[in-house]
Design brief:
Layout: H1 9-20, E1 31-36, E2 39-45, H2 54-62, E3 70-73, H3 87-94, E4 98-100, H4 113-120, E5 124-126, H5 131-140, H6 142-150, E6 154-161, E7 166-168, H7 180-191, E8 195-199, H8 200-206, E9 225-229, E10 247-253, E11 265-270, H9 279-288, E12 293-296, H10 300-308, E13 314-319, E14 330-331, E15 347-355, E16 358-365
Length: about 375
Protein backbone atom coordinates (compact mmCIF):
# COMPACT_ATOMS: atom_id res chain seq x y z
CA UNK A 1 0.00 0.00 0.00
CA UNK A 2 3.05 2.24 -0.24
CA UNK A 3 2.34 5.56 -1.94
CA UNK A 4 -1.42 5.24 -1.45
CA UNK A 5 -3.41 7.71 0.62
CA UNK A 6 -5.20 6.09 3.55
CA UNK A 7 -7.81 7.46 5.92
CA UNK A 8 -6.32 6.03 9.10
CA UNK A 9 -2.72 4.77 8.95
CA UNK A 10 -3.01 3.29 12.44
CA UNK A 11 -5.56 0.81 11.07
CA UNK A 12 -3.00 -0.23 8.48
CA UNK A 13 -0.35 -0.67 11.20
CA UNK A 14 -2.74 -2.90 13.13
CA UNK A 15 -3.45 -4.90 9.98
CA UNK A 16 0.27 -5.48 9.43
CA UNK A 17 0.69 -6.59 13.04
CA UNK A 18 -2.25 -8.97 12.72
CA UNK A 19 -0.63 -10.70 9.76
CA UNK A 20 2.69 -11.04 11.61
CA UNK A 21 1.12 -12.55 14.74
CA UNK A 22 1.86 -16.23 15.02
CA UNK A 23 5.29 -16.14 13.39
CA UNK A 24 7.43 -13.79 15.49
CA UNK A 25 7.42 -15.15 19.07
CA UNK A 26 8.98 -14.42 21.49
CA UNK A 27 8.63 -10.94 20.03
CA UNK A 28 5.27 -9.16 20.04
CA UNK A 29 3.57 -8.68 16.67
CA UNK A 30 3.86 -5.01 15.73
CA UNK A 31 2.96 -3.05 12.62
CA UNK A 32 4.39 0.32 11.58
CA UNK A 33 3.59 2.85 8.85
CA UNK A 34 5.43 6.02 7.76
CA UNK A 35 3.19 8.75 6.37
CA UNK A 36 4.24 11.93 4.58
CA UNK A 37 1.95 14.43 2.89
CA UNK A 38 -1.02 12.18 3.55
CA UNK A 39 0.45 9.12 1.85
CA UNK A 40 2.13 5.96 3.08
CA UNK A 41 5.79 6.01 2.06
CA UNK A 42 6.96 3.04 4.14
CA UNK A 43 5.49 0.20 6.12
CA UNK A 44 6.60 -2.95 7.89
CA UNK A 45 5.82 -5.61 10.44
CA UNK A 46 7.88 -7.43 13.04
CA UNK A 47 10.18 -10.03 11.50
CA UNK A 48 11.12 -13.32 13.17
CA UNK A 49 14.42 -13.25 15.02
CA UNK A 50 17.02 -12.11 14.12
CA UNK A 51 15.18 -9.87 11.63
CA UNK A 52 14.22 -6.26 12.12
CA UNK A 53 11.40 -4.76 14.10
CA UNK A 54 8.39 -3.20 12.41
CA UNK A 55 9.60 0.36 12.88
CA UNK A 56 12.97 -0.32 11.24
CA UNK A 57 11.26 -2.08 8.34
CA UNK A 58 9.00 0.92 7.74
CA UNK A 59 11.80 3.46 8.08
CA UNK A 60 14.01 1.52 5.69
CA UNK A 61 11.27 1.36 3.06
CA UNK A 62 10.56 5.08 3.43
CA UNK A 63 14.24 5.97 2.92
CA UNK A 64 14.91 9.71 2.72
CA UNK A 65 11.20 10.50 2.96
CA UNK A 66 11.26 10.03 6.74
CA UNK A 67 12.31 13.66 7.34
CA UNK A 68 9.38 15.59 8.87
CA UNK A 69 7.14 12.50 8.44
CA UNK A 70 4.84 10.74 10.93
CA UNK A 71 5.36 7.19 12.15
CA UNK A 72 2.34 5.14 13.19
CA UNK A 73 3.07 1.98 15.19
CA UNK A 74 0.78 -0.40 17.06
CA UNK A 75 3.06 -0.64 20.11
CA UNK A 76 5.50 1.65 21.88
CA UNK A 77 8.88 1.55 20.09
CA UNK A 78 11.39 -0.49 22.05
CA UNK A 79 14.24 1.33 23.71
CA UNK A 80 17.00 -1.10 24.63
CA UNK A 81 19.74 -3.08 22.95
CA UNK A 82 18.68 -6.70 22.58
CA UNK A 83 19.10 -8.92 19.55
CA UNK A 84 17.95 -5.86 17.64
CA UNK A 85 19.09 -2.26 18.23
CA UNK A 86 16.73 0.23 19.90
CA UNK A 87 14.03 1.40 17.52
CA UNK A 88 13.98 4.75 19.30
CA UNK A 89 17.54 5.49 18.12
CA UNK A 90 16.60 4.86 14.50
CA UNK A 91 13.42 6.94 14.77
CA UNK A 92 15.31 9.88 16.28
CA UNK A 93 18.01 9.74 13.58
CA UNK A 94 15.44 9.44 10.77
CA UNK A 95 13.98 12.92 11.12
CA UNK A 96 10.51 11.67 12.09
CA UNK A 97 8.69 14.48 13.89
CA UNK A 98 5.61 12.68 15.23
CA UNK A 99 5.03 9.15 16.49
CA UNK A 100 1.47 7.89 16.85
CA UNK A 101 1.45 4.85 19.13
CA UNK A 102 -1.53 4.01 21.37
CA UNK A 103 -0.17 1.23 23.53
CA UNK A 104 2.63 1.17 26.09
CA UNK A 105 4.88 -1.91 25.93
CA UNK A 106 4.27 -4.24 28.93
CA UNK A 107 7.92 -5.30 28.90
CA UNK A 108 9.47 -3.54 31.94
CA UNK A 109 12.65 -2.94 29.92
CA UNK A 110 10.63 -0.71 27.61
CA UNK A 111 7.45 0.30 29.40
CA UNK A 112 7.34 4.07 28.94
CA UNK A 113 11.07 4.45 28.20
CA UNK A 114 10.47 4.48 24.47
CA UNK A 115 7.99 7.32 24.75
CA UNK A 116 10.29 9.24 27.11
CA UNK A 117 13.29 8.94 24.78
CA UNK A 118 11.28 10.18 21.82
CA UNK A 119 9.82 13.10 23.79
CA UNK A 120 13.27 14.05 25.08
CA UNK A 121 14.38 14.32 21.44
CA UNK A 122 11.47 16.70 20.71
CA UNK A 123 9.44 14.15 18.81
CA UNK A 124 5.72 14.51 19.44
CA UNK A 125 4.23 11.32 20.87
CA UNK A 126 0.51 10.91 20.22
CA UNK A 127 -1.35 8.11 21.98
CA UNK A 128 -4.89 9.07 21.02
CA UNK A 129 -6.87 6.43 19.16
CA UNK A 130 -10.38 5.05 18.96
CA UNK A 131 -11.58 2.53 21.54
CA UNK A 132 -11.77 -0.11 18.81
CA UNK A 133 -8.13 0.52 17.84
CA UNK A 134 -7.01 0.33 21.45
CA UNK A 135 -8.79 -2.98 22.01
CA UNK A 136 -7.28 -4.48 18.87
CA UNK A 137 -3.80 -3.25 19.79
CA UNK A 138 -4.16 -4.88 23.22
CA UNK A 139 -5.45 -8.15 21.78
CA UNK A 140 -2.57 -8.36 19.33
CA UNK A 141 -0.04 -8.48 22.18
CA UNK A 142 -2.11 -10.12 24.93
CA UNK A 143 -0.16 -13.38 24.66
CA UNK A 144 3.14 -11.48 24.78
CA UNK A 145 1.94 -9.54 27.84
CA UNK A 146 0.84 -12.77 29.53
CA UNK A 147 4.23 -14.37 28.83
CA UNK A 148 6.07 -11.34 30.20
CA UNK A 149 4.07 -11.61 33.42
CA UNK A 150 4.04 -15.38 33.93
CA UNK A 151 6.69 -16.97 31.73
CA UNK A 152 3.89 -19.03 30.19
CA UNK A 153 1.91 -18.69 26.96
CA UNK A 154 -1.71 -17.57 26.89
CA UNK A 155 -3.85 -20.67 26.33
CA UNK A 156 -7.04 -20.35 24.28
CA UNK A 157 -9.49 -23.24 24.21
CA UNK A 158 -11.39 -23.34 20.92
CA UNK A 159 -14.74 -25.11 20.85
CA UNK A 160 -17.23 -25.81 18.06
CA UNK A 161 -20.58 -27.07 19.32
CA UNK A 162 -24.28 -27.40 18.65
CA UNK A 163 -26.76 -25.38 20.72
CA UNK A 164 -26.93 -28.24 23.20
CA UNK A 165 -23.16 -28.35 23.62
CA UNK A 166 -22.40 -31.40 21.49
CA UNK A 167 -19.33 -31.83 19.29
CA UNK A 168 -20.46 -35.05 17.58
CA UNK A 169 -23.46 -37.34 17.27
CA UNK A 170 -23.73 -40.64 19.15
CA UNK A 171 -22.12 -42.33 16.11
CA UNK A 172 -19.19 -39.90 16.13
CA UNK A 173 -20.27 -37.85 13.10
CA UNK A 174 -18.90 -34.31 13.49
CA UNK A 175 -18.41 -32.90 9.98
CA UNK A 176 -19.53 -30.28 9.93
CA UNK A 177 -21.27 -28.71 12.92
CA UNK A 178 -20.21 -25.14 12.20
CA UNK A 179 -20.50 -23.42 8.84
CA UNK A 180 -17.84 -22.74 6.24
CA UNK A 181 -17.27 -19.13 7.33
CA UNK A 182 -16.66 -20.25 10.90
CA UNK A 183 -14.12 -22.79 9.69
CA UNK A 184 -12.38 -20.04 7.73
CA UNK A 185 -12.24 -18.00 10.92
CA UNK A 186 -10.63 -20.93 12.72
CA UNK A 187 -7.89 -20.99 10.10
CA UNK A 188 -7.32 -17.28 10.71
CA UNK A 189 -6.98 -18.05 14.42
CA UNK A 190 -4.52 -20.85 13.68
CA UNK A 191 -2.53 -18.45 11.52
CA UNK A 192 -2.16 -16.12 14.51
CA UNK A 193 -1.21 -18.71 17.11
CA UNK A 194 2.31 -19.88 17.90
CA UNK A 195 1.37 -23.46 18.77
CA UNK A 196 -1.69 -25.65 18.25
CA UNK A 197 -2.39 -28.47 20.72
CA UNK A 198 -4.51 -31.55 20.14
CA UNK A 199 -4.80 -35.06 21.53
CA UNK A 200 -4.00 -38.37 19.92
CA UNK A 201 -7.71 -39.24 19.93
CA UNK A 202 -8.34 -36.44 17.46
CA UNK A 203 -5.37 -37.59 15.37
CA UNK A 204 -6.75 -41.14 15.21
CA UNK A 205 -10.38 -40.19 14.55
CA UNK A 206 -10.06 -37.13 12.30
CA UNK A 207 -6.50 -37.41 10.91
CA UNK A 208 -6.08 -33.59 10.84
CA UNK A 209 -3.18 -31.68 9.35
CA UNK A 210 -3.41 -28.99 12.06
CA UNK A 211 -2.24 -26.29 9.67
CA UNK A 212 -3.66 -22.89 8.85
CA UNK A 213 -4.90 -22.68 5.28
CA UNK A 214 -6.07 -19.78 3.16
CA UNK A 215 -9.39 -19.63 1.30
CA UNK A 216 -7.87 -21.59 -1.59
CA UNK A 217 -6.85 -24.39 0.73
CA UNK A 218 -3.14 -23.61 0.61
CA UNK A 219 -1.12 -24.01 3.82
CA UNK A 220 0.24 -20.72 5.19
CA UNK A 221 3.14 -22.18 7.13
CA UNK A 222 1.41 -21.60 10.45
CA UNK A 223 1.35 -22.41 13.26
CA UNK A 224 5.07 -22.75 13.80
CA UNK A 225 4.58 -25.66 16.23
CA UNK A 226 1.97 -28.43 16.45
CA UNK A 227 1.65 -30.40 19.68
CA UNK A 228 0.12 -33.87 20.09
CA UNK A 229 -0.63 -35.02 23.65
CA UNK A 230 -0.35 -38.82 23.43
CA UNK A 231 0.05 -40.58 26.79
CA UNK A 232 0.70 -44.03 25.35
CA UNK A 233 2.60 -43.08 22.19
CA UNK A 234 -0.07 -44.19 19.72
CA UNK A 235 0.40 -41.61 16.95
CA UNK A 236 0.72 -43.57 13.69
CA UNK A 237 3.45 -42.97 11.14
CA UNK A 238 0.68 -42.54 8.56
CA UNK A 239 -0.79 -39.44 10.24
CA UNK A 240 -1.45 -36.68 7.70
CA UNK A 241 0.17 -34.01 9.86
CA UNK A 242 3.53 -35.75 9.50
CA UNK A 243 3.47 -34.95 5.78
CA UNK A 244 3.16 -31.21 6.43
CA UNK A 245 6.27 -29.04 6.97
CA UNK A 246 7.06 -27.79 10.44
CA UNK A 247 7.92 -29.26 13.82
CA UNK A 248 5.56 -31.52 15.75
CA UNK A 249 6.07 -31.87 19.50
CA UNK A 250 4.97 -35.37 20.51
CA UNK A 251 4.16 -35.46 24.23
CA UNK A 252 4.28 -38.95 25.70
CA UNK A 253 4.54 -40.41 29.20
CA UNK A 254 8.05 -40.72 30.52
CA UNK A 255 7.67 -44.49 30.94
CA UNK A 256 6.69 -45.10 27.30
CA UNK A 257 9.31 -46.52 24.93
CA UNK A 258 8.73 -44.82 21.58
CA UNK A 259 10.74 -43.37 18.72
CA UNK A 260 9.77 -40.36 16.58
CA UNK A 261 7.73 -41.57 13.59
CA UNK A 262 9.19 -38.81 11.41
CA UNK A 263 12.18 -36.46 11.27
CA UNK A 264 9.82 -33.54 11.91
CA UNK A 265 8.81 -34.99 15.31
CA UNK A 266 10.52 -34.16 18.58
CA UNK A 267 9.59 -35.89 21.84
CA UNK A 268 8.67 -34.34 25.18
CA UNK A 269 8.41 -36.90 27.97
CA UNK A 270 6.14 -35.98 30.85
CA UNK A 271 4.95 -37.68 34.01
CA UNK A 272 1.34 -37.84 35.07
CA UNK A 273 -1.30 -39.43 37.24
CA UNK A 274 -3.59 -42.30 36.25
CA UNK A 275 -1.76 -42.65 32.95
CA UNK A 276 -2.47 -39.05 31.93
CA UNK A 277 0.07 -36.42 30.90
CA UNK A 278 0.73 -33.60 33.36
CA UNK A 279 -0.36 -30.68 31.19
CA UNK A 280 1.57 -28.10 33.20
CA UNK A 281 4.75 -29.73 31.84
CA UNK A 282 3.52 -29.09 28.30
CA UNK A 283 2.66 -25.45 28.97
CA UNK A 284 5.96 -24.81 30.75
CA UNK A 285 7.83 -26.30 27.78
CA UNK A 286 6.03 -23.98 25.38
CA UNK A 287 6.74 -21.03 27.66
CA UNK A 288 10.43 -21.93 27.80
CA UNK A 289 10.45 -21.84 23.99
CA UNK A 290 9.26 -18.23 24.15
CA UNK A 291 5.85 -18.93 22.64
CA UNK A 292 3.20 -16.34 23.43
CA UNK A 293 -0.10 -17.71 22.10
CA UNK A 294 -1.28 -21.32 22.21
CA UNK A 295 -4.60 -22.72 21.03
CA UNK A 296 -6.16 -26.02 22.07
CA UNK A 297 -8.29 -27.84 19.49
CA UNK A 298 -9.05 -31.19 21.00
CA UNK A 299 -11.67 -33.73 21.92
CA UNK A 300 -13.74 -33.66 25.09
CA UNK A 301 -11.19 -35.54 27.20
CA UNK A 302 -8.20 -33.27 26.62
CA UNK A 303 -10.38 -30.13 26.62
CA UNK A 304 -11.77 -31.19 29.99
CA UNK A 305 -8.29 -31.86 31.34
CA UNK A 306 -7.17 -28.36 30.35
CA UNK A 307 -10.22 -26.82 32.03
CA UNK A 308 -10.05 -28.90 35.21
CA UNK A 309 -6.31 -28.29 35.46
CA UNK A 310 -6.86 -24.53 35.44
CA UNK A 311 -4.73 -24.12 32.33
CA UNK A 312 -7.16 -22.15 30.14
CA UNK A 313 -6.93 -18.36 29.89
CA UNK A 314 -9.38 -17.67 27.09
CA UNK A 315 -12.33 -19.37 25.40
CA UNK A 316 -13.38 -19.10 21.75
CA UNK A 317 -16.64 -21.01 21.28
CA UNK A 318 -18.35 -21.36 17.91
CA UNK A 319 -22.02 -22.30 18.42
CA UNK A 320 -24.08 -23.60 15.51
CA UNK A 321 -27.90 -23.30 15.36
CA UNK A 322 -28.62 -27.02 15.57
CA UNK A 323 -29.71 -29.54 18.18
CA UNK A 324 -27.99 -32.93 18.20
CA UNK A 325 -29.39 -34.48 21.37
CA UNK A 326 -28.87 -37.92 22.81
CA UNK A 327 -27.27 -39.16 26.01
CA UNK A 328 -24.49 -40.81 24.04
CA UNK A 329 -23.69 -37.82 21.84
CA UNK A 330 -20.28 -36.34 22.66
CA UNK A 331 -20.22 -33.16 24.75
CA UNK A 332 -17.51 -30.52 24.40
CA UNK A 333 -16.01 -30.90 27.86
CA UNK A 334 -15.47 -34.25 29.59
CA UNK A 335 -13.90 -35.03 32.93
CA UNK A 336 -15.24 -35.14 36.46
CA UNK A 337 -16.94 -31.75 36.30
CA UNK A 338 -18.00 -29.54 39.17
CA UNK A 339 -20.43 -30.17 42.02
CA UNK A 340 -21.64 -26.61 42.61
CA UNK A 341 -22.40 -23.87 40.11
CA UNK A 342 -20.32 -21.50 42.22
CA UNK A 343 -17.28 -23.50 41.06
CA UNK A 344 -18.06 -23.10 37.36
CA UNK A 345 -15.49 -21.61 35.03
CA UNK A 346 -16.89 -18.20 34.13
CA UNK A 347 -15.80 -15.60 31.62
CA UNK A 348 -15.34 -11.85 31.67
CA UNK A 349 -14.83 -9.31 28.88
CA UNK A 350 -17.15 -11.43 26.76
CA UNK A 351 -17.80 -10.56 23.11
CA UNK A 352 -20.23 -12.02 20.59
CA UNK A 353 -20.12 -11.99 16.80
CA UNK A 354 -22.30 -13.53 14.11
CA UNK A 355 -20.57 -15.61 11.44
CA UNK A 356 -23.37 -16.27 8.99
CA UNK A 357 -25.75 -18.34 11.15
CA UNK A 358 -23.15 -19.31 13.78
CA UNK A 359 -22.30 -17.34 16.92
CA UNK A 360 -18.72 -16.88 18.10
CA UNK A 361 -18.47 -16.27 21.85
CA UNK A 362 -15.09 -15.13 23.14
CA UNK A 363 -14.09 -14.32 26.68
CA UNK A 364 -11.36 -14.50 29.28
CA UNK A 365 -11.38 -16.85 32.24
CA UNK A 366 -12.52 -14.84 35.26
CA UNK A 367 -10.40 -16.58 37.88
CA UNK A 368 -6.96 -16.88 36.34
CA UNK A 369 -5.24 -20.21 37.01
CA UNK A 370 -2.13 -20.32 39.13
CA UNK A 371 0.84 -19.81 36.90
CA UNK A 372 4.58 -19.81 37.14
CA UNK A 373 5.91 -16.98 39.24
CA UNK A 374 8.87 -16.62 36.91
CA UNK A 375 8.87 -13.70 34.54
CA UNK A 376 10.92 -13.01 31.48
CA UNK A 377 12.65 -9.94 30.15
CA UNK A 378 11.96 -10.42 26.50
CA UNK A 379 14.63 -9.12 24.17
CA UNK A 380 12.49 -7.80 21.37
Amino acid sequence: MRGIAINNPLDRALQLARHAKGSVAPRPAVGAVVVKNGKIVGEGATQPRPGNHAELMALSQAGTQTKDATLYCSLEPHAFQGLAPPCTDAIIKSGITTVVSPLQDPNPRVSGNGYRQLTASRIDVVRNCTEKQKIEAEQLIEGFAHHIKTGLPMVTLKLATSLDGKIATRTGDSRWITNEKSRERVHEMRHQTDALITGVGTVLSDNPRLTARDQLGNATGRPILRVVVDSNGRMPASASMLKEPGEILWVIRDDIDANPPSDCVSILRASGKDGKIELSTVIQELGSRGLNDVMVEAGAGLAGAFVEGGHVNKIAAFVAPMIIGGNDAVSAIAGKGIEALSDALTLERVSFSMIDSDILIEGYVYSSPKTSSSSTSQAK
